[in-house]
Design a protein that fits this description.
50% of the residues lie in helices and 12% in strands. With 278 residues, it is an alpha/beta fold. The N and C termini lie far apart (66 Å).
């Protein structure tokens, strides 16, 4: 049987696949035998080994169990996360770590519902749209949706963080997925507004030039009162930890809140849109 030559130095994904083959060979297992141990097909194993199919979190965890790597420092899950972080915008992986520990989260979003407030169906619709446009693979789409769930799960800690969200009106009026997906997403927003540790506001189109931000931004207040901000465009992300740079952003955020609709007026707008009334 001919074996395709591997080039582990060509990419992190290729190195991952080569390591799967190396550990499999060391144990004398065929691809069929490893596939049975992991719950995958031998075709899938082969595709990962030669770098034709990117690894996923589920695949990595199954490989760790099969190879006895769970609890070690050499897990495939760790390697997978390093690969995934390498494909994210600069600063985002570190931002997510800070977000998972923040005492207060202030966010402003334009165009789409922010990840922390998305339903699984809404997140899937966004990811599937990116697949159809050829921007990402199906596996990468699955990981995007999984990352949204991971970030939301981090909010369920004790004590929970205070989350203040200001959504540009465009977030509510841009349809995503089937009508039922959008209706459920709008309902999620109204539920979010009822929580004791959240504040939800809408920045209406009528704010015009009074809106201090033109791009999405998140400002985190850590338990030690350290301020961290994260902003991104389509091509770049920037994590800022210098207070001299973050404090003016916090001031601008307060100005944004002052000009936005109150929470009750915001919920009323969301309810009107959910019911299909102008």
């Amino acid at each position: 049987m001919n074996r395709r030559e591997l080039h582990p130095d060509s990419s992190p994904q290729a190195a991952y696949g080569a390591r799967v083959r190396r550990l499999r060979d060391a144990r004398g297992w065929t691809q069929d035998e490893l596939a049975e141990r992991m719950g995958y097909s031998s075709v899938h194993i082969s595709a990962v080994e030669v770098g034709r199919k990117p690894p996923t979190l589920r695949f990595s965890r199954s490989a760790d169990v099969a190879f006895g790597l769970v609890g070690t420092t050499e897990t495939f899950e760790r390697e997978f996360r390093e690969i995934r972080q390498g494909s994210l915008l600069e600063g985002f992986p570190e931002f997510v770590e800070h977000e998972g520990r923040a005492a207060e989260i202030r966010l402003y979003e334009v165009g789409v519902i922010p990840g922390l407030l998305q339903t699984a169906e809404y997140a899937s619709a966004l990811a599937e749209s990116a697949v159809r446009r050829g921007m990402i693979t199906k596996e990468q789409a699955d990981e995007r949706v999984a990352l949204v769930a991971e970030r939301q799960a981090a909010l369920l800690r004790t004590p929970p963080p205070l989350v203040l969200a200001v959504l540009d009106e465009s977030c509510l009026r841009r349809p995503v997925g089937e009508p039922g997906v959008m209706a459920a997403q709008l309902e999620r927003l109204t539920d979010f507004a009822t929580l004791p540790t959240t504040i939800l506001q809408v920045a209406p189109f009528t704010m015009g030039t009074d809106r201090p931000f033109s791009l999405p931004i998140t400002i985190l207040t850590m338990a030690n009162r350290l301020l961290v901000s994260y902003a991104e465009s389509a091509q770049a992300g920037h994590l800022e930890r210098e207070s001299t740079s973050v404090v003016p952003l916090l001031t601008a955020y307060h100005q944004l809140q002052a000009g936005a609709l109150s929470q009750s007026a915001s919920v009323a707008m969301i309810e009107q849109l959910r019911k299909g009334t102008p």
